Amino acid sequence: MRKKIVAGNWKMNLTLAQGEQLVNDIVSAGIKLAEGQEVVIAPPFPYLARVKQLIRNYPGIYLAAQNCAGEKSGAFTGEVSAEMLASVGVDYVILGHSERREYFSETNAQLAKKIDLALANGIKPIFCCGEPLEIRKAETQNEFVARQLEESLYHLDAAALKNIVIAYEPIWAIGTGLTASAQQAQDMHAFIRSRIAEKFGREAALGITILYGGSAKPSNAGELFASADVDGGLIGGASLVAADFAAIIKSL
Ligand code: PEP
């Protein structure tokens, strides 16, 4: 059985005190995780060690960073390496978020390097893929996403792939209030799984967790997560409100 995950990406929001309050509200919201279900919280870098302390007594709740450097160590002012993240107890790292691709020009090839560094340090990448609106309008989203997978993941072997989570995030649905329909999400997730099966085999494809991201909220999470190939969600805006995030987790 593959893991089901709800991950909250805080992006560049909240002070430390607000973040502590949010984590405390989430853990006291009465969430009961079934076997194979996980919650992942991705605060900004400076709060990682503190959030790790706050979640340490809650099995099933894990810590993610929102990015890591594409180099191992050295003179890269302002960067944070995968080894540093591992040293403060980070479990997952979000890589290839569309905001990183768009505002910081991250390429599929750079992401392949970051994935290798994360894996080498025992951190599981949550690899984001997804198409912009013009690609969706041209109905070439499958080719677009296939290329992202090929250029960032296909150099791995099946054993390494076991530590990868994929998040399908159509860019036109991120932070816009527009959500992909459950059918659009299911179609793309099934397509991604079929590509993984072609490259890594059926067992790898059946085992990989594929999250949906893009304006997921309590009112649509249940329908999205009910689709056969949707294994949970990567949540932006709604992860900043404890009651909403808890309600989405309960929809798993
Ligand atoms: C995201 O940034 O990964 C995301 C899905 O954001 P939102 O839920 O706000 O659309």
From TrEMBL:
Pathway: Carbohydrate degradation; glycolysis; D-glyceraldehyde 3-phosphate from glycerone phosphate: step 1/1; Carbohydrate biosynthesis; gluconeogenesis. Involved in the gluconeogenesis. Catalyzes stereospecifically the conversion of dihydroxyacetone phosphate (DHAP) to D-glyceraldehyde-3-phosphate (G3P). It is found in: Cytoplasm. Keywords: Cytoplasm, Gluconeogenesis, Glycolysis, Isomerase. This is Triosephosphate isomerase. GO terms for cellular component: cytosol. One of its GO terms (molecular function) is triose-phosphate isomerase activity. It comes from Chitinophaga barathri. It holds the Pfam family TIM. The gene is tpiA. GO terms for biological process: gluconeogenesis; glyceraldehyde-3-phosphate biosynthetic process; glycerol catabolic process; glycolytic process. PANTHER family: TRIOSEPHOSPHATE ISOMERASE (PTHR21139:SF42).
